[in-house]
Amino acid sequence: MGAVAAQAAVRRVGAAPVPGGVAVREPPAGAAAWAFAAAAPAVAAAAAAPMGLGALLAAVADRHPSRVAFVDQAGKAAWCGRPAITWTYAAAREIIARLAEGLARLRLPPRSPVGLCMAGMAECHLTLLAIEQAGHVPCLLPVTWDEARLLQAVEAAQIQAVLTQGQLGTDRPAERLCRVAARYFPLRFVAAFGPHVPDGVIGLDQIVLDHRGDAAALGTGPAAGLVSFALGVPAAGPRPAPSRAAGAPPEPDGPPAAMHRDGDALAAAAAACLVPLRIAPGDRLLTLLPPSDLKGLATGLAAALLSGATLECHPVFDAAALSAALDQPLPTHLVAPAWMEAGLARTTAQGRLRTIAYVHRAPARLSGREPGRPGVVDVVAFDELALLAGRRDALDVGLVLAAPERAAAAGGLVQIRRDPDGRLAFRGPACGAGMLQRGISPVDSVDEWRPSRYRATLFAGVATALTLA
């Protein structure tokens, strides 16, 4: 699907393309048509320079400056010492410009890898966009990682600066990253939002106060992409898929591998999720996933900006806060980890939502899901390589994994094949990721098949599980 088809998708919903290729006018054809139109920037990748998330935010800010972009979780001050703030698209663009100007004063070489180690709060989204605007490569570092794993990731991506926060509950991420910097000499700068900013660490709050950036320039230059980290095979071999009621599955062991993808590939991955989610401009996207990997970013920040929605993150799970948020009379779409499905099914959440997306991380068990349930979307993450999304009442992921040719019905953003050894392979605009080698990203074609580590277990023509090959 090329640029002509992308523009046709925009025309089908009656929306006018703006610079960067983003259609931001509400379509008369409804939310489903908007989701297809949202894919237009991604599938036109071959005809334009790589586009970043900043261009998406700027496009919405131009047309709808007072629309709410980011909403913090109520009670945020209790776990990070910072007030909960609601940001409009116009206000967000201004703060991003200030942070980007402060980063430019660090005099890092263009396209330098810059770590981002924060919980899912508004400051995290603003900082990621500022790193991109400053011409650098955001590297997503989970704030829950310990010092040893952070050091491995910093070395793998050759990170030269890290932006973080001073407090997360009783944890002190900025202090931990200072210890990482002491062990990795090329890491020259650590900056953090307060409180509890250690001596020698740059205060990001002060940067926002001291600098004035060019908000109008947001998203006008080519984006350098981003880096996320894939974790290795568990030390004990293939682990069984966790019980749906067993809680969050543990992360695999092994050193993190740095995976780079450009802005077009990220936009395509988000667009592939938007097609079944059917998020309309101005809707609220409430996510319980951290924005620290592909599945969290594509179903969160990238999806919200691509659809012109409002993003609300709940990085610290609080049942009362979640229930109160869902009680607000807003068209809402919820993104949650798959292991929470059994618990959420016992609540009234489903009746208050337009859609709910359950995100699975391979290897995973897909049996036991309620089939054909309307309004429910499954998103399956294959490491940092690819995401597969589908509605249970139409093009369910279990059916697609059993017959990979069905993936073509999602617009060609993700294509799947089963190799002779049973492993699943992926290609397409949404799968354009490559492992960094000495800080250099490989130049691969979107037409190249990329094998995964997983095979599908089939029963009666449906995939019931994903296991390590």
Automatic annotation (TrEMBL):
Residues 59-170 form the AMP-dependent synthetase/ligase domain. Residues 238-248 have a biased composition (Low complexity). Gene3D superfamilies: 3.40.50.980, N-terminal domain of ligase-like. Coiled coil: none annotated. It comes from the Bacteria. Residues 238-261 are annotated as: Disordered. InterPro entries: AMP-dep_synth/lig_dom (IPR000873), ANL_N_sf (IPR042099). This is AMP-dependent synthetase/ligase domain-containing protein.
